[in-house]
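#struct-help
A.M.: can someone run this one for me? Single chain, 192 residues.
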Amino acid sequence: MSAAAPEPGDSDAGVGGPQRSVPEPRPGVAGWFHDRSELVVSVLLAGAGAVVIIDAMRMPTGFTQRGPVGPTAMPLVVGALLVLVAVALAVDVLRGGRGDAEGGEDVDLSTPPEWRTVALLVGVFVANIVLIDIVGFPIAGTLLFWGAAFALGSRHWVRDPLIAVALALVTYVVFGELLGVTLPGGPLEGVL
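D.P.: on it. Structure tokens below:
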């Protein structure tokens, strides 16, 4: 049997599936850096790995050492893996590898960003920072959760505050009782 030649309208024109168009390289030094912008991610990964390794090497281990594997073992492994991934990514980018364009997300890049939502979220976070020491976490957390839901478009005037109160109280109790992390209670300090 002989293989049939692909028809002009076939989308799978070959063994590898549809062919992608590769953008033309840009001229000059700026074009070289633009075409290899993934190197920034590689540098950031290498920097993060170096910070983790340096911090692990500075960690005092005398009182925490319990056997052959001390507290520096995992940070050293994580730091080394970060550096290894950074080197592999840099080699791939320098050999011509490129990340695929985002095709699966339902984002319309022609629409402008919604600055109102961003401003509302920033305002809610700033209000939380200002109020947490004054009114305590349960109240500030409630305002944070409710304000974030409002900023992101939820307009359920009964359900949203109830969920916000529940989230704030559960977070306060979990941090205080189970994790031993004291959050400011404000006027509700003795009640909860």
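A.M.: thanks! Residues 73-94 form the longest helix (22 residues).
D.P.: also worth noting: Helices lie at 28-35, 39-58, 73-94, 115-135, 137-151, 159-178.
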